[in-house]
Amino acid sequence: MNVVLLTREYPPEVYGGAGVHVEYLSKELARLVDVEVRCFGRPRQAGPGETGGGPVVRAYQPSDEVPQGMLESPVLQVMSTDLAMSAGLSDASLVHSHTWYTNLAGHLAKLANGIPHVATTHSLEPLRPWKAEQLGAGGYALSSFCERTALEDADAIIAVSEAMREDILKCYRDIDPDRVEVIHNGIDPDEYVPDPGTDVLERHGVDPSRPSVVFVGRITRQKGIVHLLDAAPVIDPAAQLVLCAGAPDTEEIGREMAEKVRLVRERRDAPVIWIDRMLEKREVIQFLSHATVFCCPSIYEPLGIVNLEAMACEAAVVATATGGIPEVVVDGVTGHLVPFEALDATGTPRNPERFASDLADRLNDVLREPHRAAGFGRNGRRRVLERFTWAAVASRTLSLYRRLA
Known about the structure:
Blueprint: E1 2-7, H1 17-29, E2 34-40, E3 56-60, H2 68-71, H3 74-85, E4 94-98, H4 100-113, E5 117-121, H5 131-153, E6 156-159, H6 162-171, E7 180-182, H7 199-203, E8 212-218, H8 225-231, E9 240-246, H9 251-267, E10 272-275, H10 281-290, E11 293-296, H11 305-312, E12 316-320, E13 335-338, H12 352-368, H13 370-387, H14 390-404
Parallel strand pairs: 1-2, 1-4, 2-3, 4-5, 5-6, 6-7, 8-9, 8-11, 9-10, 11-12, 12-13
Helix pairs in contact: 1-14, 3-4, 3-5, 4-5, 8-9, 8-12, 11-13
């Protein structure tokens, strides 16, 4: 069997959960079948699959021959790249696309070659209207077109959580429920292990001896970091607030983030440490390992790999009870879930002040009892080992491939 994975992100250019998913899934699948990864971006070095031991990796960019106006549109650039990615797949057994960025490529490859198309949904465009800020109204319409067209014709759709499966069937009512299968995301528990070192913390001015609340993620509406900042003034003043947050979706949200951090620093005596870039994996692991509590204040999260990463590093987790998060974080066992009710499709909390207050209450509850927090962390790692390994994800994914091909 020759499987081709289509993705926007692949190392060394990974900034979100979908990229992490493809990175680890491709490695595990390559132990079992022939795997080729087609990704966006600069040319990669020859993949290990070309000499044995891993996936073959090929990178694609928009064609230089398309009209200049197309190159000025980010979404049309994506669609141009999809056209290039979908060519030369006559020997593939099937294609497997990830996110709207490559869903269209998977759809075109199916039509051109008569091979099955599997699509994994890491998010859904109808549930992310704030993407219009990033892509523009026309760009958001095109991204929605790519997703809808591909999903409605895909031979199988993988949802990364039960909540995501429900969302797919609500958003796209023409999709046969029998074509949607839940396969959770995973984690590499041999890589994400507690790191006793403190060099990364000290380099960034974090005191390893003091309690800390840690956030790791992109600066985007979806990740809810602005709500954590709204909660910050009433979080235990003994705790450091560590924000590992970069890659803002837009200049506007980047400025909003900077202003909120400035205001929080004026109102808190404890340090507010903002690392405004995407960190290397080793750095993230050390921050998570020393966190008294990791906070995931997302307003939309189909699953949230970062919660698995934190749990694998034995951090207690306080996270929003939305999307697939309750399928990962067990309230009162691995941390706390924060109630959440959205006002509308934008994900705005119905009561933002209450949401911020509830976040602070749950975080303070963990900070008050460090021994209980440590117990949450141990329980979290145990849960990851039992239920969320990439080997299990690859096994279930390959079983789906074989049924189709």
